[in-house]
């Protein structure tokens, strides 16, 4: 099996196009056509993790955080990033990262956090706009179902918990091919009128290529008429953060103790308690202060995230309780998520979980 197959599997779960503009998710070191010896899963591709990969015979490290964010102008070992690069290249270790693209998918990092608290009825806290497109195409009646089935199979037609969603309007299409054509119906040089259906389906932007390819393969015409229109709709399948409900309301301090236990953290930094039960919970893996207003607007009783600055705690303004569990602690279960993705898709393949705790923050 080649590294490319591992990458494609993770990318199908967390499309790279969903990463934020500042991010650098993807294959950072290595060749996608290398044969995989084994895979080591980690939150951070540190020097110790690369050495562990060498010792355990793994030539691919899959990490959550990209080891390289900006351009490297020199690689001389003066920084930990450069030392990781040297070590990985020296030992032919490929390094792949799925970062904010894994944060932004519905079943990604935040969903894994929500599992730790058994949250129910979860949804994306801040759905992303402009990630959807509408495909319009025109199909002769006899071939309508084969075209519809093809675009559905390629991933079009999903709206929330519904699949195979489409709309059709029946009408008539006209066309006239020149002498170089071999039309499916009609004759070159003569205008032809054909009963056709206008078929409409919605699709994620990142599936455009696959859906159009399926359309062209299934459609009988030489020249397929279709339109792709960008939509401004927000999409509940992708975005930042998550919000859901605890199975039962909890006392605030009992909730904070549960959070500390479930996220295995040395401490929880939190804002003053409000004297109200916690039932609705918002959360975001990693640095999530940018979503505080969204959590308040969603009516959350508590917001779990990390990396809040001193003055940002004031912004809770007694409208909810902020629980800062630490960056590493909030995302530590990403390794389990990687493991699940790969073992579900490669039944006879056993990736390894790194034994290195990469958290640079210690608690006294």
UniProtKB/TrEMBL annotation:
A divalent metal cation 2 binds at residue 64. GO terms for molecular function: metal ion binding. It comes from the Bacteria. A divalent metal cation 1 binds at residues 65, 103, 327, 331. GO terms for cellular component: cytoplasm. It holds the Pfam family DUF34_NIF3. Homohexamer. Belongs to the GTP cyclohydrolase I type 2/NIF3 family. This is GTP cyclohydrolase 1 type 2 homolog.
């Amino acid at each position: 099996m080649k590294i490319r197959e591992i990458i494609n599997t993770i990318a199908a779960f967390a499309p790279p196009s969903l990463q934020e503009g500042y991010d650098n998710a993807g294959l950072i070191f290595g060749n996608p056509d290398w044969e995989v010896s084994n895979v080591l899963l980690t939150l951070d591709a540190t020097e110790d993790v690369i050495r562990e990969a060498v010792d355990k015979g793994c030539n691919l490290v899959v990490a959550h955080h990209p080891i390289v964010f900006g351009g490297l102008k020199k690689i001389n070992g003066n920084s930990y990033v450069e030392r990781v690069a040297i070590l990985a290249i020296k030992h032919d270790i490929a390094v792949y990262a799925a970062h904010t693209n894994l944060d932004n998918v519905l079943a990604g990092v935040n969903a894994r956090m929500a599992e730790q608290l058994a949250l129910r009825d979860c949804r994306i806290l801040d759905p992303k706009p402009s990630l959807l497109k509408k495909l319009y195409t025109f199909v002769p009646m006899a071939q309508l179902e084969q075209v519809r089935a093809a675009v559905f199979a390629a991933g079009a037609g999903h709206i929330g918990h519904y699949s195979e969603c489409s709309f059709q309007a029946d009408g008539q299409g006209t066309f006239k091919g020149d002498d170089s054509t071999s039309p499916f119906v009609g004759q070159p040089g003569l205008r032809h009128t054909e009963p056709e259906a206008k078929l409409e389906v919605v699709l994620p932007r990142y599936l455009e290529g696959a859906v159009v390819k399926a359309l062209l393969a299934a459609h009988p015409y030489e020249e397929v008429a279709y339109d792709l229109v960008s939509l401004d709709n927000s999409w509940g399948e992708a975005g930042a953060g998550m919000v859901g409900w605890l199975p039962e309301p909890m006392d605030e301090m009992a909730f904070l103790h549960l959070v500390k236990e479930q996220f295995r953290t040395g401490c929880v930094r939190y804002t003053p308690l409000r004297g109200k039960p916690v039932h609705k919970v918002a959360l975001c893996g990693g640095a999530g202060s940018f979503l505080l207003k969204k959590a308040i607007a969603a009516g959350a009783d508590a917001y779990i995230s990390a990396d809040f600055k001193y003055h940002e705690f004031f912004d809770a303004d007694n409208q909810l309780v902020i629980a800062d569990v630490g960056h590493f602690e909030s995302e530590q279960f990403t390794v389990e998520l990687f493991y699940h993705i790969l073992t579900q898709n490669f039944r006879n393949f056993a990736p390894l979980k790194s034994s290195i705790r990469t958290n640079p923050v210690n608690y006294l």
